[in-house]
Write a structure and sequence with these properties.
Elements: E1 3-8, E2 20-27, H1 30-43, E3 46-50, E4 56-57, E5 63-70, E6 75-80, E7 84-90, H2 95-104, E8 129-130, E9 133-134, E10 139-146, E11 151-156, H3 157-160, E12 177-187, H4 197-205, H5 213-227, E13 236-239, E14 244-247, H6 248-257, E15 264-267, E16 270-273, H7 275-281, E17 288-289, E18 292-294, E19 301-304, H8 310-328, E20 337-338
Parallel strand pairs: 2-5, 3-5, 4-20
Antiparallel strand pairs: 1-2, 6-7, 7-12, 8-9, 10-11, 10-12, 13-19, 14-16, 15-16, 17-18, 18-19
């Protein structure tokens, strides 16, 4: 286990912004986890666990601690029957590589999450999902190192209290667990409609009625390729803002002026609406804001034109939030996590 010093965080983050980390270590197995946590306790230093760097930001002052870069690999089938197959997946496995693997084996349950950047270990933290699927749908359990008790533990779906882009790992248990592997259960049955509206529309436009994990994956990849910039070419963190959850009363009021605005039921009193639509209707889609730009095909995405500092990004973020609140009275929330 090699601990590196004074590492540029922007080299590990897809937004390409951020100062230096005092230390960084790559972990590839559970023994590394124990070793690095012993080192952390010995040196009385902060730590932050980083996966693929696609949904994470660093501030200009960097991080006066150690970045634990999770590179634990491995895909192991642990159970199979006539209806499903269950896999234990190393936290450092690239999410889309695993989805490709499941689709190649004609398994359904995660195909609509195709092309989401990052690692599978990051998915339970904020219940990552897209186009009508989320990790909670297939999640069974995870194994993690509990830094408060210094032991490995297993956390079930019930333990994590999943909700829309949320879990206890993002709040009361933030920073407590270092995830080593995630267990998911995939279905052998074919995907069934109705699908997410944009997915169904694209399937219909292509006259596709053979609904398989492969056709759904290909359709989602087509949509994402058209709507989302490649972070290798244009620095970005994917969806920068979460879709907004509002009350049904708020939606009814908005529909008086904007009848085209759709709400997706969250519970009996709340619906989820498109934050991208709010940003677009606020006149910001495609607009340059300082050194950043709201993407012209997906207003949820904030891209880095030539920003060199977190301050540039934060200024653009606050302008967007203020404009949406001024127009609709809705406070939109950042989805991307921050190293602290």
């Amino acid at each position: 286990m090699e601990i590196k010093k004074n590492i540029e965080l922007k080299d590990y983050l897809t937004m390409k912004i951020g100062g230096k980390a005092a230390y960084l270590v790559d972990i590839t197995n559970k023994h590394d986890v124990v070793d690095v946590m012993n080192w952390v306790k010995e040196h009385h230093i902060k730590f932050f666990v980083l996966g693929g760097g696609s949904n994470t930001l660093a501030k200009d002052e960097g991080f006066d601690g150690i970045i634990i870069h999770n590179m634990i690999k491995g895909i192991k089938k642990i159970h199979e029957d006539s209806t499903s197959a269950t896999f234990c997946v190393g936290a450092g496995e690239i999410l889309d590589h695993f989805i490709h693997y499941t689709v190649q084996n004609n398994l359904s349950g995660m195909e609509a999450m195709s092309m989401i950047p990052g690692t599978i270990g990051a998915t339970p933290v904020q219940n990552v999902g897209a186009y009508g699927q989320e990790i909670a749908d297939t999640f069974v359990e995870l194994t993690a190192y509990d830094t408060s008790t210094n032991e490995f533990v297993t956390l079930s779906k019930k333990d994590l209290h999943f909700s829309y882009r949320n879990s206890i790992l993002k709040h009361e248990a933030w920073g407590r667990y270092i995830i080593c592997d995630v267990t998911v259960c995939l279905n052998k049955s074919l995907p069934k409609p109705p699908f997410y509206a944009q997915v169904q529309k694209t399937l219909d436009e292509q006259d596709i009625h053979d609904y398989t994990p492969q056709t759904i994956r290909e359709t989602v990849i087509k949509i994402r390729t058209q709507k989302l910039p490649d972070p290798h070419l244009i620095p970005n963190s994917g969806s920068f803002f979460k879709n907004s959850v509002i009350t049904t009363e708020q939606l009814n009021e908005l529909n008086k002026e904007y009848p085209e605005l759709k709400g997706f039921v969250v519970d009996e009193n709340h619906v989820k609406i498109s934050t991208g639509w709010l940003i677009d209707q606020s006149g910001l889609k495609g607009q340059k804001i300082g050194h950043m730009r709201v993407h012209d095909k997906n207003a949820l995405v904030l891209t880095n034109l030539d920003a060199k500092s977190y301050h540039d990004l934060a200024s653009a973020r606050e302008i967007i939030k203020a404009r949406v609140y001024e127009r609709f009275g809705i406070t939109i929330e950042q989805e991307v996590l921050e190293i602290a």
